[in-house]
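Marked as duplicate of an earlier ticket. Keeping the data here for the record.
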Amino acid sequence: MSEPLLQVENLHVDFQTYGGVVQAVRGVSFDVFAGQTLAIVGESGCGKSVTVQSLMGLIPMPPGRIHQGSARLRGQDILASKMIAGQDIRGSQISMIFQDPMTSLNPTMNVGSQIAETLEVHRGYSKSEAFARAIELLDMSKIPEAAKRAKQYPFEFSGGMLQRAMIAMAIACEPAILVADEPTTALDVTIQAQILDLLGDLQKETGMAIILITHDLGVVARMADEVMVMYAGEVVEKGSVDDIFYRSGHPYTQGLRQAMPTNNKSTEAEQTLVAIDGSPPDLFNPPRGCAYHPRCPYAMQVCAQQAPPTSILGPTHQTQCWLHHDMAGALPDGLVSGNEAGR
């Protein structure tokens, strides 16, 4: 396998508040490879967006703080400096599609000018050159009558068209990595499919890597090559999309899968959605042991006392769970051991 495009190791991010220190991200590590899609999944508040926004310098400091860890883009440390070769990496090397396009665009500027501004700042285009390229990008994003639409304002666009405009802006400088933060949340199902197809087509054309932040496992199954499952600011399982869906090693991953609707109509029991009882822990004072143990149906005494070690289940598959320890006994139904995963 080629060298990672982006390497993040042991990232810790916290926020100083009146109530104390919120430990939002706690020791996150992952790699991103060119031309591949890494999906980061988990419940709201688990640290998905904060992880990526901290790498891009989008976390206000203070109250935010990166107090440990490293992140290297093509070998260069982007936490020490957000500049590479004199250019800000935001927009040029790493671009982001935000959750809500309706509030992410400037209502006082036409859409074409907002896309063109990115090219003027990062690539030194003249206004006329940048606007002409903006029209091409809107057309590439499959917006009809791109020249006409470029002169319109955000309120004249539908939700799906706004998301396409955000994608056009994000790919304007041909970034190495595109971050898609819940890119289909506010869209209906048919438009969701079109946006996902568009992202896939653009990835094939440009070879960019995609970091997909979502809690929709259906989107993950369709788009991802690798999946990282986060809970309470930590990575509890990483693996290929097949590992996560068919060879889950952590009870939390299993719980997320069981809460996902299925087309399987073989039995009534298999159609029942199983909710994960309880709530995520308070990150002002995270649990000493496994953060998931208060909600875990298989929790043992050691889970509350010590953080679990990393268990290797396959060449690219790992999890943090005491159930995989040699002394834990037989695994519960639905969870896969390292021996089974390697078959």
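See parent ticket for discussion. The radius of gyration is 21 Å.
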